[in-house]
């Protein structure tokens, strides 16, 4: 969704697509970097003025939450979403998992169900249909919506142990939440260890910015498909959603991987949504939710949750929060 520009030796290097690690610098402030495959994407980390052991700690934290939120396979060390989806029995989970699912419930409520974590079945069926260049039938959509609306999951704490139980036929999918929540966990680690200079980019859709050692701490973040447009940001989370990489056009209509949990549609109102805020999970969830909201509803959510959004379609900005200063080269 973004490009990053870093200045080295009076030259500007433009990086597009996934955040690139193939960079060199003659500066004494040369960063240390890592690139790991988590959450079905590459998570790229860049740190200044830290020990190499920080990379190990970041890897361990990301690995833990990647295992917890995986809905494709069983984890060797965690109780994954996949395992929870395979049973309607009460399943023991870790305290960290329990706290994570509490946040899932909180965001489902605060998003007014625009974020529905029980959308896995419908989302998977849409993906399979679009892979075959077909629109999912209304009969299937109605059936899956009924299952989703008649399903739930509950959390229990008993004798210092933690449990989750899924009720009904619908299954969990934390794809709109997992990366942002993991960045929240990393942010807590950075704060407790007084680490300030970093950038964590989880697939260009969930980003955590600390401060750069130069440019007054600001990173320059370019907006994809908006010619020469960029923002200068620091100490914040970014959530982004779009249709370009996973969109499929059928009969002149663009369908995406973002499914409306109210009517089951895979048609979105915008091509891209950008959300800036101070909570990663919230930005992640809202960037997806905003894709199916009208502009007035987006503005209400901005006010209620202290976030700032940019919405655009056909390479044109439909709406931009006045607190976000978009600059142009």
List the helices and strands and how they pair.
Elements: E1 2-8, E2 11-15, E3 32-38, E4 41-47, H1 53-69, H2 81-85, E5 91-93, H3 95-110, H4 120-131, H5 138-149, E6 152-158, E7 161-167, H6 178-192, E8 198-202, E9 206-209, E10 219-223, E11 229-233, E12 236-242, E13 248-250, E14 253-255, E15 272-277, H7 280-289, H8 295-305, E16 308-313, E17 316-320, E18 327-328
Antiparallel strand pairs: 1-2, 1-10, 3-4, 4-8, 5-7, 6-7, 8-9, 9-12, 10-11, 11-18, 12-15, 13-14, 15-16, 16-17
Helix pairs in contact: 1-6, 6-7
What is the compact description of this entry?
This protein is an alpha+beta fold and 329 residues long.
Task: Sum up the structure in keywords.
single chain; 329 residues; alpha+beta; T-fold; 5-stranded antiparallel beta sheet; disordered N terminus
